[in-house]
Amino acid sequence: MGAHFHPLGRVGSGEEIAAAVCFACSDAASWMTGVDIPVDGGFSVLGPDRGISPRVWFKELMPDDGA
Length: 67
Hints:
The chain has 67 residues and is mostly helical. The protein is built from two helices and no strands. The chain starts with 13 loop residues before the first helix and ends in a 6-residue tail after the last helix.
């Protein structure tokens, strides 16, 4: 997915994902159990359809090139 899909306006890096994993594996997270930690640049707060039809998503991802 392109950066325009994410509220932060950019795609995350592998280092950012790794930082969340390292935190979850660290002693700092020792009191956390049974939770999901979304590491998605805010995408999950938009809801399942971002307020638009999935058909629009596919048009944005694969525009008709007239072929």
